[in-house]
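Q: Hi! First time doing this. I have a protein sequence and I read that you can turn it into a structure. Is that right? Here it is:
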Amino acid sequence: MLPKRVAAALIAPAAFASLAGCGVNTIPTAEEEAKAAWANVQDRYQRRADLIPNLVGTVRAAAAQERNTLREVTEARAAATRIQLSPEQLRDPEAMRAFSEAQGRLSAAIIPLQRLQEAYPDLKTNQNFMTLQDQLESTENRISIARTDYNEAVRRYNTTIRTFPAVIGAKVIYGAEPMVPFQATTAGANEAPKVDFGNGQ
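A: Yes, that's right. Below is the predicted 3D structure, encoded as structure tokens:
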């Protein structure tokens, strides 16, 4: 029979290896990566929301009679910025769907602004409008990249909590649940809308 100290010395490394193999560190790391990626998605959507009032103001000055289009864009922006998801809601398919739908409505509301430039040639020469249009297009591309990065982080997390040996730690220690990836709610919504105001770019 081994003395207690020797037995403890042999058991401690085995217990540590068992815990490490069960995803004790891997699971929270993957979860935090997914949450950070989601924060980036929200940041990109916020940037878009911040650009829209400036764009609307510029169009309003050049095309005052287009109040209906401007009102729809402003209302869609307000609705989209009201829906924010906490990290805990990333496991809630309904919350993710509501967020996605609100952002999709805002993307659709922006598209009619393209037609305003055709009706109001003054917008083509308005440097503020052209700069805002470029920034909006760039932001739409960043949103697409951030959603892709988030979905990849969620895939890694969901795979980690479902594969052996991490599944043991996921269920026993953390009670981990899968996260919900970002999904388009309308056809083509997973692609950034083409924002083209005819500036030749």
